[in-house]
Each structure stands twice: as C-alpha cells, then as structure tokens.
Amino acid sequence: MHALVCFAHITAGSTFTTAELHPRAVAALDASPEAYRLPSLRYELSKLRAKGLVEKLPHSRRYRLLPMGYRLCLVFLKLFERIYAPLTAGFLRPVSADTRLQGPRVSELDTLYQRVVEALDRLLQAVGLKAA
Questions:
Q1: DSSP code of residue 16
Q2: Rounded Cα–Cα distance for residues 130 and 110 (Å)
Q3: CA–CA separation, 52 vs 49, rounded Å?
C-alpha cells in the first residue's frame, strides 16, 4: 500500500508496471528483492484487482490505482503509522523500567494504549479468538 500511494507513477499518466512498483514495495517492506520477488507483488496486485482497488489496463502491462483503492490505502497507512506502529513498538521493544512505574508516574498515553490493548483482547475473546 505504501508503494502504491507513492506519487512517482503520476508522471506516467497515473499508471505503473509491476517492475516499476517492485523496488518501492521492497523498500517499503524493508526486504531484499530475493525475499519479496516480483511474482509475490503480482499475486498481491491480483487480490487488489479482485477487490476493485486496482485495475489492469487492457492490452498492456500497466496498472492503475483506482480512487477507492487510493483512499483505502491512505486509511490503512494512517492507522498503521499513527496507531499500530506505536502500539507494537512498545511490545516488541519494551523498556524494562516501565514495568516498575507506579500509577501516577505512568503517562496518559501509556494508560490509553493499555486500555486499547485490553479492549482488543476482550473483543478477541468475545468472538472466540485467542489473543496472541
């Protein structure tokens, strides 16, 4: 999604090929070209096409990101960058001293994040899924 909303393809009439998009996707995923190969990108584009977010131009190897696809990409990227990434950063790289903080010394942001995590755990439990 990050590679799709890149504005580099605007100069090509708002279209792109998988070969043009692949380096941006590799960079966005922080992967190597060997780890994220062109067939993987093509498969993911086919899923986006099936959902009506991307279209393949007839008689061409070019694709176009449709307006609804662009809007959905932006929503998911905003959620990721503003909510999911900060939340997961605390889980993946916790600061050990944080567990020893007493109530009034815990920041409001940490308290709010903890509430979100607990609410998500309750939601997963309510629908019958196990929390990771």
A1: E
A2: 23
A3: 5
